[in-house]
Amino acid sequence: MSYKKILFFLICYFTFSGQMLASEKILTVGICGPKPDNNRFFSYITDAEKIIAGTVFNSLFKYSPVNPNSVEPELAESIPKPRMSGGKQNWTFTIRKGVMFHDLPSCRDYELEADDVAYSINLLAGQDNGKFPSGIQVRIESRNRITLILDRPLSPNLFLPKLTGYNGLYIISRKILEEEGLISGTGPFMFVSWTADNCIDLTANKSYFMGMPDIDCVRFVFSSDMLRMEQDLFSGDLDVLIPPKGYCKPVKNDENLKYFYFYSGRFIYLGFNPQTVPFNDVELRKLIAINIDRDAICSQMDGCERLYGLAPQETPEGMTRDEIKKLGLDYGYQEGLKKYLPVRAGKTVDNTVDFCTNDKTVPKEILSSIQHSLADMGLETATGDSASNIQTCMENSSGLKLLSIGVPENIQALLDVLIASGAIEKKYKYLIEAFMKETSNNKQGEILKHAQMKILSDLNILPLLFLRESIMSGKRIRLGYDCSRQPFFTVTEKTGFVD
Description:
With 499 residues, the protein is an alpha+beta fold. 26% of the residues lie in helices and 23% in strands.
């Protein structure tokens, strides 16, 4: 069945409507933004699409609530070890038994089989969106065993995240889709209605293999009016509020609200153009790297974490921040080396420089704080049109570039983004290629360290801070998992109300 036909059937499915169960345990989640379009829901591009899909479907693996750099089994029983055969890499997965698809009104539920997993994988592999490796073959071994065959070997760090819902692999029923034209998942909640103008209603899957959900119903409400949604949160009409992308201003202080910060978010970098004056002076670049006050910049934002380098709190190999600093990756503020004016060899440089950004949604508070920090060192920044606060980066004309980059799934994706944005030179292409070819996690970790040190040694890009995504909720709401270790908000079987 073609992808377009699947979307057609999906539209038919989402026109099925019903009534929300009469229950006291109804969770109402407000999402500031447009309601997902049901004829492109399977793309899982927007946050809203990912949130809803993560509530309705399961994947072979999921990101660990304990460590965001690792995955753990969900519909798969365990994490297998790959083996080589005929020059190709083979991954054999055992599918969890006793997992039932949703019991929909027009069709009977049945137990998940390897055929459904193979069907779902082939759907994703057939899309030209870069989410799944090319040249993959799927072989069904038995009713609950499946083998994935890769032309190009990949390490677990690179391959297993491809089999998570965050990257779009959700398992659906082949039989129910082909016979009934309906999308049936295995997750903790099932669709009730998609037809309301601004709502999507879900009801609990009472036979969920991880246990019956603590709440009976979930209602997702969509609106572009953040002020109105804040009022609904204060009044109790909403239990949870998810702000739009780039929204960093906290709502008014209220003792009945609490804030959650998620592992996903954006890295903010300061990029130098070493081909322009004054940033062709490596000593000046080092001076800025040493003196820029990340603490002052971060103090303006909730969910803001100052960065020491490209490495997170811990690398996939378990390096701690102290170990990162010992490797020379700490370019943070150092009081003993602080200087105020960009002066070298007794010569004062031109202190007015162009400043631009690749992302118009970077909060104005961040832009203003960076400009103040640079001004303390004697660098005044020209930002162009005051109405838009800062101009958009054009080619390599600007001396300073503020780069906003979403959290990538791995270092290869991050390096690709940086190269595409002109933030680092293409000479690091060999590091990307070496990283991609390496199948050992340990060796891959070593390449990761070298990539970080190589990039930072040139100081053409300066890591500044990380802005975490956030949600707001009433204090009586419990998420049921450590949100600071997850890539996005979702409603699980453990989400509920505090008794």
